[in-house]
Design a protein that fits this description.
The longest helix has 25 residues. This protein has two domains: 743 residues, Beta Barrel (Maltoporin, Chain A); 27 residues, no CATH class. The chain has 792 residues and is mainly beta. It is built from eight helices and 45 strands. The strands form eleven sheets. The chain has a 22-stranded antiparallel barrel. Strands 3-8-9-6-7 form a five-stranded mixed β-sheet.
Amino acid sequence: MSNTSRSNTGRRFGSKGFYRFAGVSALALLSAGAAFAEDVPAPDPDTAAEVTDVVVTATRRATNVQKIPYNISAVGAAEAERVGIVEIADLARITPGLSFRDVGARDNGSVILRGLSVDPLRVSTGGDNGSVAQYINETPVTNQPRVFDIDHIEVLRGPQGTLYGSGSLGGAIRYIVNDPKMYYDASLGAEVYKIGEAEEGSYKLTGMINLPLVDNKLALRVALQHLDDSGFTDYPMVISGPKTDLDFEKRTTGRASLLWQPTEAFSATASVYYDNAKAGGRTGSNSGFTIKPAYDGVSDNSDPTQWSYPASNYRPYTLGKYEIGQRFEEPESNHYLLSALELKYDFGFAELTSSTSYTKENLLGHRDQTDLLLGLGFGYENYPDFRAFTTEEEDFEATVQELRLVSKSGGAFDYVAGLYYTKEKGYGTSKEFTPGLAQFWGLGRTDDLEYFSTDDSEYTEVAAFGELTWHVSDLWQITGGLRTFELKDDVISCTALPLYDDPFSDDITFSCADGSSKVSKTIYKANTSYQLTPDMMLYGTFSQGFRRGGVNTLPDGAQFGGITEAQRKYIPDTVDNFELGVRSQWFDRTLTLNAALFHIDWQDVQLASLAPGNLPIIANAGKATSDGVEIESEWKATDALSFSFGYAYTKAEIAEDYFNRNEDGDILNTFLKGTALPGTPEHQVSLAVDYDFPALPVGDLSVHADVSHSSKVTTSAELDSLDYRTLDGFTEVNASAMLLPSDGVKVRLYVTNLTNEYAFVASQGPATYGLQGQFLIPVRPRTIGLSISKNF
């Protein structure tokens, strides 16, 4: 407990200080804008161009993004292509308040909005119930989609519980893909690129075809993409021989949509989304760590390719900047299939939408467990050739049904009313193998199986939701909303320790525990906005969000005495969000300037904790807060020149002390008031510039450059944890040029991480995996690429 007395005085920004800062910032922003409007002459209409706004459906009706009365960012297809947004990491680079730590192709990184995350900032080994919901159109998804053939992307900041339900604690991200059109369209594209630290190049192929099958009645759209990314992380200590660029990714993604529109009032869209991904290993660096690999006593030990492991002679080897010390390869494959049917009927006064989807996901992965087991104190370290690996399989399926009625705009009242149902089933296994250990101990097992666990879960959610908007006048509106829901979770977990329970046979004796949880709750939303001028809206929002609870399957028995019923389940954690903001456009809409101030209270925070016997659980523990400012602007200076700027200040921290103790009163976990929540930088800044060179002899040319900076982050909410680190802030610079040499052809040259910044975004700490098994996850090295596409 050496760090429990560490002072946070130098890192804390008290609530009074924050509100003074927020108030001054807001007044300064509005005053500066007003003064700017008075003092600076309007742009010459011959040289100025209006900023183009995106039409979004975040409120469940099509609305210009500048008319949405809360903080939302929207990225259209053209901007996504210009900036180079192909995955969520690129989106986070330009979106204030959105933090995503790219941990490589093998694992899912944490998606965080407004600082609402308390999980350790490390690689994911199985997924969790995150605080940000992600959607493709109307359907929630559990993977992290690649961006192609989209209409636009919406980032909704702050809790979206009334309309989007569980998982939208911090916000929601919606990928709105292109629907089938009633005309012919097609495109093909190819891209090649080289990662600076990779031995080989990478490529990506993309294609789309849109076919009208029946005139103005039936259309089909198919989009495909195949990615072959080389990776850049080396595994020099793999027992079977050193491996280079093992964090490669091979991924094939496809979408097919069939639109049937027999009348103007009715439409049906059936779609299939398929994502087949394979990663060769983790992205990481254990740079500077010196290990003692074995060699055969004959070969040159300075050459890792000559090592024969294990053996009796050892000499040191120091890992490099893009090397990690795993003894086994750690591949993972993920097969994701989403089928959806969306029906719409226009009654004239309102539109009825039915959205039905079925998701199936299959995952298979392997992990090096050697250092984890060596740290357990079971005597494994006495076996000179000890090594261990885990094979994990997960099957997941979900059915989602939403029925929603949305009124047409134009009257004194607008409404959204809906019903929601989801049922999820999951089954997972984890098998841990220790080759040679049973024979070394003189046991009779032949399968090398040391640990075996299974998890079988079923989750259901039923909800009714709605929002009612009263247009008090043409300029002033008031909205109220609620969501009432019931959540039910049933889990059965079984574990076996074959080396101890069945040491002289290959039998498996399971010990099982089950649990269930049922929660009913109602959350609320209140919003008001006033259109101060045709181009300036002021708004205020109170909104609530929630994240599902669950079950901790803990064993019975005297050896686990002290386990309470409260430790066998955890309830949903909830947030209360208070927000003030302005959405504005200036100078004939050539300048867009949006800003928001927020304060969030987070109750019953779900923390990774421990039960007696050091059994891992999730516990509802204490409170947290998040305070911040978000600013986003875009200036179309001329037809050729434009600038964009984003800034987010986020102060997210534990709001009260929490000490988790065992039955003897010993402290197992410590979460101290004032400790920063992991993963969110206090400051995020982005700046971009675009310039068009029209009508050049070789075609139209546009150039783009952007720079983004994130300040330092911490990796854990526990100051005493060995996994607690502070990761320095870093800056990324990207540049690109796009040439349109002829009708329908696009050629794009780009460089990402232009300065080849070497910094870290997350870590796997030594608390669980020891000094050799730990690693940091670096920013992707400089990458240079060229893409060519053609529309037909």
